[in-house]
């Protein structure tokens, strides 16, 4: 059976809590995109790219643990550890938090648009 098309939506993240799990280049890029949308971003990783220090985010320097996603409206898992990515997705799913695991379509509730700064239609 062919998968039906995805339903396109724009999400207002202004002042919303968003969790990014991972501190590498991909997490950095996603964090910048989220900040451009006005999100309040919390990033959890044992190690961070140096450019994270210039960003207005809450940095938690340790490995992700269950429960870290609790107050998030949306989460992005951008680690190099498939086990952690799956756990983040599973925990978010249980709590009905939208989650996107980088490069794993089966573990994504949404797919970010190439235009992350979209504005509502008139």
List segments where confidence is low: pLDDT < 50 over at least 5 consecutive residues.
Answer: 118-122
Shape: globular
The first-to-last residue Cα distance is 36 Å
Largest sheet, strands/sense/barrel:
5 strands, parallel
Q: Give, in spatial order, the strands making up the sheet with the most strands.
A: 3-2-1-4-5
Q: Based on the coordinates given, report the CATH architecture.
A: 3-Layer(aba) Sandwich
Which short descriptors sum up this protein?
122 residues; five-stranded parallel β-sheet; 19% strand; alpha/beta; Rossmann fold; disordered C terminus
Describe the structure.
- This protein is α/β, with parallel strands linked by helices and 122 residues long.
- It has helices spanning 25-36, 82-94, and strands at 17-21, 40-45, 58-61, 74-77, 98-101.
- It has a single domain (17-107), classed as Rossmann fold (3-Layer(aba) Sandwich).
- 20% of the residues lie in helices and 19% in strands.
- The chain has a 5-stranded parallel β-sheet, with helices on both faces.
- Helix 1 (25-36) links the parallel strand 1 (17-21) and strand 2.
- It is globular and about 45 Å long.
Write the layout of secondary structure elements.
Layout: E1 17-21, H1 25-36, E2 40-45, E3 58-61, E4 74-77, H2 82-94, E5 98-101
Parallel strand pairs: 1-2, 1-4, 2-3, 4-5
Brief synopsis:
The chain has 122 residues and is an alpha/beta fold.
